[in-house]
Predict the structure.
Amino acid sequence: MPPYLPGEITDHIIGSVSVWEKSTLCNCSLVCHAWLPASRHRLFAKLTIGHEVTYELLVDRVLRSEEMRPYLATTREITL
């Protein structure tokens, strides 16, 4: 038996977490390196920009980051 879970299983586990459970998805992203991409896709599925500070963080940390920008492709809903 391999010492890790196959990607299909971890994707299913993370996919079962509601996109509104941000703290749970953040914890999933910290489990191991392999869980990070699926967790980020779920985290970016629904974005809430409630304050100017939140908008500025989105621009500074996501839009200006080559690594983070692709995750915005999975965004399905933005709440202002």
Observations:
- The beta strands are 46-48, 77-79.
- Residues 46-80 form one domain.
